[in-house]
Amino acid sequence: MNEIDAKIEALVPSWLNVPEIAERLDVQVTRVRQWIREGQLIAVRRGENRVLMVPADFIGEGRIVKGLSGTLTLLRDDGYSDEEMLEWLFTPDDTLPGTPAQALRENRGTEVKRRAQALAV
Questions:
Q1: Which of 27, 57, 105, 119 is 20 to 30 A removed from 88 (C-alpha atoms)?
Q2: Which stretches does DSSP call E strand in 23-67?
Q3: pLDDT digits 0-9 by tens, 23-60
Q4: In whole angstroms, what is the distance from residue 121 CA to residue 38 CA?
Q5: From CA 110, how far away is CA 33, in angstroms rounded?
Q6: Which contiguous run of DSSP H or E holds residue 17?
Q7: In this structure, what is the dihedral angle of CA atoms 56, 59, 65, 70, given to the nearest 10 degrees?
Q8: Which long-range contacts (CB under 8 A, 24 or more apart) does 38-42 make?
Q9: Which of 47, 40, 120, 42 lies closest to 81 in space, CA to CA?
Q10: At a CB cut-off of 8 Å and minimum separation 6, what does 32 contact?
């Protein structure tokens, strides 16, 4: 495991594989894969079998957490890699408080997006 993987493992509390997300959101697996391709979700390969996994915090009640897709777009436009985005989203920030991922889950996406935009400066 490289340094970035280890850091993400330590930051992200729980993961879901693609079929689990499809089941939770009542969509086809191909739809979840499309969201990953389109950048609406971030997935990383984990474990011995290198299974594609998504942080569980990205999946809300019957949908992708509101504001996640726009935040990912902002971070990607700032040149962040998927790993860097995960690190940013799951690193605690006392001024939020909590992590940006928690803030999105709690419908505080406006503040998260503002901070993501500020990173580009």
A1: 27
A2: 44-46, 51-55
A3: 999 999 999 999 999 999 999 998 888 899 999 999 99
A4: 25
A5: 27
A6: strand 15-17
A7: 70
A8: 39/69, 39/72, 39/73, 39/76, 40/64, 40/68, 40/69, 40/72, 41/68, 41/72, 42/72, 42/82, 42/85, 42/86
A9: 42
A10: 18, 21, 22, 25, 41, 54
Going by C-alpha positions, the residue among 98, 101, 105 that lies closest to residue 42 is: 101
How many residues in total does the chain contain?
121
What pTM did the predictor assign? 0.91
CA dist 64 and 109 (Å) reads: 13
Dihedral angle over CA of 2, 36, 32, 96, nearest 10? 80
| Whether the Cβ atoms of residue 29 and residue 22 lie closer than 8 Å to each other | yes
